[in-house]
Structure formats: structure tokens, C-alpha cells
Design goal:
The chain is an alpha/beta fold and about 200 residues long. The chain contains six helices and seven strands, in the order E-H-E-H-E-E-H-H-E-H-E-E-H. It is globular, with a radius of gyration of 16 Å.
């Protein structure tokens, strides 16, 4: 049976969604892995989103907390808000109390990817503070580390992402993930899914 890898994200303007799509491609490139995209529920009204200039949501299905229990591994993606995960993702985690009570997610591998507005806007603090959510659920945090190779040391061009996970800079909203950032996202999906598959096989 294929290992189920869920890529669960929140994306207001599409930057995190772009990373999620690339992560799914990387995850799906691993034999014996079934990768699926999910969005977390929106907490803002259509009126507020309209005033913020947010585009319409995509057709990616909206996840419920109980859906998480079906996954063999989960990658969570979100934009930063003042160096931490956005309120929509935090609200979703806050709704997982039932899973926490029964430790339904304990032992499952988990990864993180993210978007920030600026270079100093939380590329490390955002995933670092998000790890607390995984810890209370007993999940196994799987960072990218430096497995992406030489491109982790890119200095000639602006590049987001870190050993914690893949990332991008949104800037004023007009900057989109670069080729290297998308390559790291693909690599994260591939690397993470290989580990999720091995863990599922070892427990079979």
C-alpha cells in the first residue's frame, strides 16, 4: 500500500500554494508514495479578503483535523505573521485537540515550508516556533538540513529557504518563488516522502 503524504497549507496570495505544488511533484516522484494537496479553512470573511486584494481560493480541497490521522506523513506550509505561522494555520492546529488527546499523530513524520515578506521576516523563526505544534502531537520533525547541496550556500542571488524547510520571499506580493526556491521545494517533497515511505515500510 502506498504511503500517504499530505501537503497541508494556507496561502492568501498564492506564494505558499506555489511551493506546495512543487513539493507535491517532488513527493509524487518517489515510487510507492501518494501525495495529496489540502488547504486549511479560511478564517476571514469574503469582504475582508476582498479588501486585502486576495484572489479566489483554488479547487484544492479543504481539510478537517480528522483527515490528518489518515496520513503517513504531513508537510505543513504557511506564510509568516510577525515571525510566526499565520492565524489560519494556528486556528487549524488549535482544532486538533481531539487528535492530541488520543495522540493520533504521534510518530508520524512532519515537515514545514513557508513564505515571508522580507529576508529578515522570519525564515527561521517561523518554522522554529511552529515546531511546538508538532512536538505536542508527538510528531517526528523532518528538516531538509543541507541535503539540497551546494544551492543551500547560494550567495549571488536572493534565496529563501533554510535547513528547516523550503521557503520563498513574497516582498510586496509581486515577487514569486524563484527557480532555485522551487527546486528546493521539489527536493523537500522528494526527501521527505522517501523518509515517510521508509517509516511506513518499517512499521508494516
Amino acid at each position: 500500500m502506498a504511503a500517504k503524504v499530505y501537503i497541508v497549507y494556507y496561502s492568501m496570495y498564492g506564494h505558499v500554494a506555489k511551493l506546495a505544488e512543487e513539493i507535491q511533484k517532488g513527493a509524487s516522484s518517489i515510487e510507492g508514495v501518494e501525495a495529496k494537496l489540502w488547504q486549511v479553512p479560511e478564517t476571514l470573511s469574503e469582504e475582508v479578503l476582498g479588501k486585502m486584494g486576495a484572489p479566489s481560493k483554488t479547487e484544492v480541497p479543504v481539510i478537517t483535523p480528522n483527515d490528518l490521522a489518515e496520513a503517513d506523513g504531513i508537510l505543513f506550509g504557511f506564510p509568516t505573521r510577525f515571525g510566526m505561522m499565520c492565524a489560519q494555520m494556528k486556528a487549524f492546529f488549535d482544532a486538533t485537540g481531539g487528535l492530541w488527546r488520543e495522540q493520533k499523530l504521534a510518530g508520524k513524520p512532519a515537515g514545514i515550508f513557508y513564505s515571508t515578506g522580507t529576508q529578515g521576516g522570519g525564515q527561521e523563526t517561523t518554522p522554529l516556533t511552529a515546531i511546538t505544534q508538532l512536538t505536542h502531537h508527538g510528531m517526528l520533525f523532518v528538516p531538509v538540513g543541507y541535503t539540497f547541496g551546494a544551492k543551500m550556500f547560494e550567495m549571488e542571488n536572493v534565496k529563501a529557504g533554510s535547513p528547516y524547510g523550503s521557503g520563498t520571499f513574497a516582498g510586496d506580493g509581486t515577487r514569486w518563488p524563484t527557480t532555485v526556491e522551487l527546486e528546493q521545494a521539489f527536493h523537500q517533497g522528494q526527501y521527505f516522502s522517501g523518509i515517510a515511505r521508509k517509516l511506513k515500510s518499517s512499521s508494516a
